[in-house]
Write a structure and sequence with these properties.
The chain is an all-alpha fold. The protein contains 16 helices and no strands. The protein starts with 7 loop residues before the first helix and ends in a 12-residue tail after the last helix.
Amino acid sequence: MTKLPPRAARRCHNVINPLHSLHYFSPDLGEVMGELGLKDRSAVYFATRAAAMGQVGAGAVTATFYNFSPRLVAEHVPAVWGTVFPGTVLQARLKVVDLTLRRLLGDEAVESPEMAEAARLALRAAEACRPEARPLYAAHADLPVPAEPHLAYWHAATLLREHRGDGHVQVLLRAGLDPVEALVTHTATGKGMVPRFVIASRGWHRADWEAAQERLRGRGLLDAAGELTEAGQAQRVEIEEETDRLDTAPYEHLGAADVERLTELAKGFTGTALAGGAFPDGVFGKG
């Protein structure tokens, strides 16, 4: 392991993670899962992300996903497994990723030496991820690495994303932020998704959101206008820094020079995907 420049791991994560996440927003996901009998957008999301854990129930999904309403989860899980088996979902997910990456990046980039290099580096970083207390990462780490470099890179991005995400949930719990409070404060930073999208996609009601805002105001973390106070801003900074501390091992294992190279490669692929409309307009920001 080598010492990294400040925030090098976070910079790398920030350009790798979007390439993992874009399949959730891809029209290919709805089409492919629709062919399997899944039509509801939430059911598709829960099945796609939870399939690596097997035929789990609503409790496991609520616990690991953290910021989704238990009501919404229970509407679709475990019922979704009566429509499609997890193994079928995992196969379909790779098909979606292949279609999406080829559409957004083009065959030349997908089949390029740079993609193979990115896959090699990201997989090497993931070698240092640990499964303890990281259920979503651990479940995905049990899956085989796809043979095709672009799918292997996406798989590695998924491992790194879920590893960091599992650690982030631990930090949120220690910070005393419940699921809705975590969403409210993240949105208030301007780095999350807009409230209307978060509320709808996570299954909360406007009353849930407003109640969380009131609790945060009572703790001095949010002001009357819904903006973070100085204390609220400091808490979010500490949350991200503690998440960084729990997520250094993969990048230290890779080493400073290769982290920089992986960041460069990932930035190029993600930039092309974003320019190609990987994410819908109006989803991110304060709204």
